[in-house]
């Protein structure tokens, strides 16, 4: 019987896989460091807009600049596990929604060395109090205003305003043409590294997905009113939704609790309370 085991196959130099790996020298190729950065979003107290969590860097490079939480991925650790660990170490948050956004590889994005970042989006139902931990000097929630023409991140208590103008440019990928935002700094303070680009990509992805997936339910409490849920969709999309169309869209995803309460939105009225059906929408 003829055997064709992979372990016994030889390459053009006559080496089996075991022999090849024994002779292999990883130092023959320069290897990048790999980090993870996390964009954390939540709704503000009256659900009138989004908040983003930033940390103030306590060390070089970009010392004293505001940035997204993140850090280096450790050996034998997945990017997801590293993102969850860094999130807890730098902000104290844990057990929240995390989804990979994009891998950022632009040369020179980190002045220390060749660094690739795997970015994640995190969504929280409540704005828990945060504090700078580990190598973060401070941590705070910032108001986020993201439009087709600008990005504004502000915190009145910290007296910080970070602002970018946005220009749309078209890019071709084979037969496909798509648009992307090119940021231009318009304030004295800026986000560290290329974190504004991570912010843009994360918001684009969330806007593209939120009408078809269940991310909006991660921005409200487990028990919510329809006005609260609708405000979460609208805050992400940056535009109002028709009440009837919205309710038709979510009707098969939710069920009543049998309770009524006042919605937390500004000027909110007493409304029926709902929960996401077990298993979600199946999307």
What does this protein structure show overall?
- The structure is a single chain.
- Strands 1, 2, 3, 4, 5, 6, 7, 8, 9 and 10 form a ten-stranded mixed beta sheet that branches. A three-stranded antiparallel beta sheet has the order 11-13-12.
- It contains five helices and 13 strands.
- The longest helix is centred in the last third of the chain and has 15 residues.
- Strand 9 and strand 10 form a beta hairpin.
- With 283 residues, it is an alpha+beta fold.
- It has two domains: 177 residues, Nucleoside Triphosphate Pyrophosphohydrolase (Alpha-Beta Complex), CATH 3.90.79; 62 residues, Winged helix-like DNA-binding domain superfamily/Winged helix DNA-binding domain (Arc Repressor Mutant, subunit A, Orthogonal Bundle), CATH 1.10.10.
Distance between the termini: 48 Å
Task: Please report the total strand number as a whole number.
Answer: 13
Describe the biggest sheet? 10 strands, mixed
Unreliable segments of 5+ consecutive residues = none
Oligomer: single chain
**Spatial extent as radius of gyration:** 23 Å
Give structural attributes.
283 residues, alpha+beta, Nucleoside Triphosphate Pyrophosphohydrolase, Arc Repressor Mutant, subunit A, 2 domains, ten-stranded mixed beta sheet, three-stranded antiparallel beta sheet, 13 strands, globular
């Amino acid at each position: 019987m003829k055997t064709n085991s992979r372990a016994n196959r030889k390459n053009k130099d006559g080496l089996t896989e075991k022999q090849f790996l024994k002779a292999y020298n990883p130092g023959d190729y320069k290897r990048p460091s790999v980090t993870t950065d996390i964009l954390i979003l939540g709704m503000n107290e009256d659900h009138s807009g989004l908040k983003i969590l930033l940390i103030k860097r306590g060390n070089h490079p970009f010392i004293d600049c505001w940035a997204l939480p993140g850090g280096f991925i450790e050996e034998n650790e997945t990017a997801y596990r590293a993102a969850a660990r860094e999130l807890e170490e730098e902000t104290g948050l844990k057990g929240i929604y995390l989804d990979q956004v994009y891998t950022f590889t632009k040369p020179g994005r980190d002045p220390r060395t060749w660094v690739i970042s795997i970015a994640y989006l995190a969504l929280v139902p409540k704005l828990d109090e945060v504090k700078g931990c580990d190598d973060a000097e401070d941590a705070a929630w910032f108001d986020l205003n993201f439009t087709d023409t600008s990005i504004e991140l502000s915190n009145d208590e910290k007296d910080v305003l970070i602002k970018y103008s946005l220009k749309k440019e078209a890019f071709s990928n084979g037969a496909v043409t798509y648009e992307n935002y090119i940021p231009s700094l318009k304030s004295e303070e800026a986000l560290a590294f290329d974190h504004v680009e991570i912010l843009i990509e994360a918001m684009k992805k969330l806007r593209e997905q939120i009408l078809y997936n269940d991310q909006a339910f991660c921005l409200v409490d487990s028990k919510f009113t329809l006005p609260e849920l609708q405000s979460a969709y609208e805050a992400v999309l940056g535009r109002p939704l028709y009440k009837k169309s919205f309710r038709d869209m979510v009707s098969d995803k939710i069920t009543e609790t049998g309770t009524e309460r006042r919605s937390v939105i500004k000027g909110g009225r007493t409304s029926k309370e709902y929960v996401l059906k077990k298993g979600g929408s199946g999307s």
